[in-house]
Amino acid sequence: MSNTPRSVWRLLFGGLLIGLLAACSPLKVLNSLTPGSTFIKTRGIAYGSDPRQKLDIYQPRQAVRGAPVVVFFYGGSWNSGSRSDYDFVGEALASRGMVVVIADYRLYPQVRYPAFLEDGARAVAWTHEHIGGFGGATQRLYLMGHSSGAYNAAMLALDSRWLAQVGLSPRIIKGWIGLAGPYDFLPIRNTEVRPVFFYPDSPADSQPINHVSQGAPPALLIAANQDSLVNPQRNTGGLANKLRAAGVPVQEFYFARPGHATLLAALSRPLRGLAPVLERVSGFVEASPAQ
To answer: Measuring CA to CA, which residue among 98, 92, 95, 82 is closest to residue 28?
Structure first.
């Protein structure tokens, strides 16, 4: 038997896997390595009439009623993405006892700001009304997102306009979780994102940092120190400071090893050694029991 420490093998495997992710379709690789034994998946539930307005639900296989619920929004600069690519996220959270909703939403060029926020609000409203039938507790509802999906989660949690359109308010949200989110990004430098927000006439009220107020839901903000796409100090750090100044509970973490994309990939079983993202998320949710 080899005397090589297990931690060294994990590092070697992680390095090989990261190389594989760079060469292949990263999300498909992660999904292919995701076990299906921890969750039950319900696919393609419509929350609206558009083909993009559908969601999938991941229930813990050993579920108990009254489980916390996480609505997850993926990234992709608001112009790409599919819920089918994120089994590894559903599995990670379901393995910790959460009922997970992963929703598609309309993208550019079909729509521009704020249509994807309206879709997000509809997905949350569907979840709020129906998730009890899947073992979830509506009083333990969380929003979560990565990159542009973290923006979506932030806007729904901080700007009451969007949930108001579906007869709800941010008060229904127990907390929200942002991974590598852009919360303060005007003027827009990313040429792919510019048309989504009507550059150069991007509205100031499109920025989550401009909607912080006392009484907003608690937040967990996580970023990668070496994020070359979304500046962590300006976005995560700036929003965290503004939330604290308003008296809003916020937890803030930065990790050295992952980058912008691998911060989310660290939720997957093969790459959890990169950073304790899943531990931070599950700890945040578990610390906020139902009232």
So the answer is: 82
Three-class secondary structure of residue 255 per DSSP:
strand
Tokens matching residue 250: 């916020």
- Confirm whether 268 is domain-assigned: yes
- pTM for this prediction: 0.91
Residues 6+ apart with CB under 8 A from 208: 151, 154, 155, 158, 159, 181, 183, 184, 239
Q: What angle do CA 243, 180, 241 make, to 5 degrees?
A: 20
Residue 267 sits in a domain whose CATH number is 3.40.50.1820
Whether residue 6 lies inside any domain: the answer is: no
pLDDT bin (cut points 50, 70, 90) of residue 5 is low
Whole-number Å distance between alpha carbons of 95 and 37: 9
What pLDDT is stored for residue 55 in this prediction?
Answer: 98
Q: What residue ranges in the chain does DSSP mark as E strands?
A: 39-46, 54-60, 67-73, 99-103, 136-146, 175-179, 219-224, 250-255
> Is 203 domain-assigned?
yes
SS3 category, 219: strand
Look up tokens 């400071």; give the residue. Answer: 241
Question: How many domains, in total, are found in the chain?
Answer: 1
- pLDDT confidence of 86, banded at 50, 70, 90? very high
Residue 46 in domain: yes
Show the domain range for 92. 26-286
Longest Cα–Cα distance of the chain, Å, equals 64
Q: Calculate ∠ Cα 184-147-84, nearest 5°.
A: 155
- Model confidence at 265: pLDDT above 60: yes
Q: Using the predicted structure, report yes or no on whether residue 1 has a pLDDT greater than 70.
A: no
